[in-house]
Amino acid sequence: MAQSQRDVRTRIRAVKNIEKITSAMAMVAAARLRRAVQRVEALRPYANAIRRMTRQAAEASGAIRRVPILQEHLEVRTVGLLLVAGDRGLAGAFNSNVVRAGVAAGREHEAAGRRVVYFASGRRAASSLTFRGLEPADSFTGFTDRPAYADARRIAERLMAAFLDDEVDRVEIIYNSFVSAISQVVRRETLLPLQEATVLEEHRPEEPPPGAGQHRARPEYEPDPEPVLKRLVPDYVEVSVYRALLESTASEHGARMTAMRNASDNAGDLIKDLTLQMNRARQAEITQEIMEVVAGAEGLG
Description:
It is a single chain. The chain is 59% helix and 13% strand. It has two domains: 2-16 and 260-300, Helix Hairpins (Orthogonal Bundle), CATH 1.10.287; 25-198 and 220-258, ATP synthase, F1 complex, gamma subunit (Pyruvate Kinase, Chain: A, domain 1), CATH 3.40.1380.10. The longest helix has 76 residues, at 225-300. By secondary structure, it is α/β, with parallel strands linked by helices. The chain has five helices and five strands.
């Protein structure tokens, strides 16, 4: 019985150490989450604006036919899928949700007779794809805790090169969109070609969309929208990728904070159960010793 108590004490100490670690990780994730959310909120209006400007310039005239990256391929035979996840785990289902959505999207395209080329942002996405036998054509790692614009530019240049070189005919991006600290939504967007790209507009539900009920003049370009498009389109792709990286980072910190808080709560519950188990074992041992003393006394009497 004494050995059993020692085992329980050892387990209690181990669980308490784990609880300290998970509590510290939850606090670190909460601090990083606040900064990540600020970056997301600051970028969202700019990202929406540059998408609108790019689409307006593309629709202004026939300049779209003279900008190579805006040329739609005659047939979509190959689709590039960029999966945006994290470099680390311990974030609940954050990484696995993106990988599952990416694999499901790939199977959907393959069922339609298209070939799929995977790109991965984050070690978890790259390793999960490799484990499933879906080796990514390129992977980008080492920055998911705090992505910089240069990281987005590097990814965007690779995707644009793949599109221009006919390596892929369409580019889609799959990532966790940040809703709140306890809610992240996996989003799938078409990045290229621009004509099929998803345009997200953020506005409060109780407010009308921007420009609703107003007559908005069509922009005029002097001398021609073509140079504007050539400048805007790369920025549009880079900002779209950067936004996905920031949304994913905020989602990762929120998911890790929630997961670590849940782990700390579970550790606390386990410590209570183990303490109760140890107390019962101690009481049983004391009762047994008393019974032995009484039996000995009766034998002497």
